[in-house]
Specification:
Elements: H1 2-28, E1 36-38, H2 41-55, H3 58-70, H4 76-88, H5 95-108, H6 111-123, H7 130-136, H8 138-141, H9 144-159, H10 166-181, H11 189-205, H12 210-223, H13 235-239, H14 244-264, H15 266-273, H16 279-292, H17 296-303, H18 305-310, E2 313-315, H19 317-353
Length: 354
């Protein structure tokens, strides 16, 4: 019986190791390892709520609200999102903290203060806050008029030999040419236009993440036939100078940004893209925001960016198979060693008794 058991355990060990080897080849043999894959869209929100249930203690939410109150200027977009999410979770702020929030709101949102801030925002995008920019500046920046102005301003600078903001120029051109450019991305012209408008706002506010600025600058330098700029007289002339195949990654980025806008709102999208570290972050953020909607800002403030973006991922089937194969191999090896140790102990005991 013991011999049969050891034979069976040995066979299981060999089979498990063989299965693990095959899975490892599948996982790593065809390019970068696919340890993680996108989670199904309908399960992202469930994972978000599960994570909130784990970490969204009243103390954590209170600390985040206190930290946001201490910022200067205060970010009311984030503050309101966190307090709304706390209310949805049934978490009440301590009375003294709730009083501080209302006092700060009264201080920051008086009629004269709001009017002055809006005028400053309309004049200079760097003076805009996230809660004012949509009201005071976005109507122009995110419209075809803003795109035409951007092309005219930066094209004129180029012709005069002055400094050109290549990012604004390419965003304006993409905004006006979105319908043609989406052919190379598989996105949608509406989301690309929205993403380009949002990126222009972020650029003007100084809120564009560095990775996006670098990507768009490279796209402008390589994806535009600059030699043809002096001869351009109309918008169509400029957009005809674009090189769609070169612009594919940039247009994909703007499509993802537009998806965030469509889900989390324009102000929320503007705030959220500033938290991303690369295009992969933005792509995952787009998927999460499509599941969480206008809750995305509040959820990110509570969970943190990394934990939130991980809700869009799950272990790939190959990775799960590898884990299962290794677990079976370890179990078989332990059983094999225990069986051998038991047999040795029994033989030793019989010799001593004999």
């Amino acid at each position: 019986m013991r011999r049969a058991l050891r034979t069976g355990l040995g066979a299981l060990l060999i089979a498990s190791l063989a299965w693990s080897g095959v899975t490892t080849v599948q996982l790593f043999g065809s390019g970068p390892a696919r340890l993680w894959v996108d989670r199904e869209a309908d399960r992202i929100l469930a994972e978000v709520d599960r994570q909130l249930a784990r970490v969204a203690a009243p103390e954590r939410i209170g600390r985040r609200v206190s930290a946001l109150l201490a910022e200067e200027p205060r970010n009311w977009l984030a503050l309101d999102a966190v307090t709304a999410e706390a209310a949805r979770l049934g978490v009440a702020l301590p009375p003294d903290l709730a009083t501080r929030v209302e006092a700060a709101r009264a201080e920051d949102s008086g009629w004269m203060s709001g009017t002055g801030n809006c005028l400053r925002c309309a004049w200079d995008a760097e003076k805009c806050s996230f809660d004012l920019v949509m009201l005071c500046r976005a109507p122009v920046e995110m419209s075809p008029l803003g795109d035409i102005k951007g092309l005219a301003d930066e094209g004129g600078n180029y012709l005069r030999g002055e400094d050109v903001d290549e990012v604004i120029l390419i965003l304006s051109a993409v905004g006006l040419s979105a319908t043609a450019l989406v052919v190379v991305t598989g996105g949608g012209s509406v989301t690309v236009k929205a993403g380009a408008g949002l990126a222009k706002l972020a650029r003007g506010m100084g809120a564009m993440p560095a990775w996006m600025a670098r990507s768009l600058t490279d796209a402008a330098r390589q994806g535009v036939d600059w030699a043809g700029i002096p001869g351009a007289r109309r918008v169509d002339d400029v957009t005809a100078l674009l090189r769609p195949s070169v612009l594919r990654p940039a247009v994909k980025t703007l499509d993802d940004a537009g998806r965030v806008v469509g889900s989390a709102g324009a102000a929320g999208g503007l705030y959220l893209i500033g938290k991303t570290a690369d295009a992969a972050d933005l792509s995952r953020l787009a998927r999460v925001s499509e599941a969480a909607g206008e809750r995305t800002v509040g959820v990110m403030e509570i969970l943190g960016k990394n934990r939130l973006l991980r809700t869009a991922l799950r272990l790939s089937d190959e990775a799960l198979h590898l884990v299962a194969g290794l677990a079976a191999a370890v179990a078989a090896l332990v059983g094999f060693l225990l069986s051998g140790t038991t047999s040795l102990a029994l033989r030793t005991a019989r010799r001593r008794l004999g």
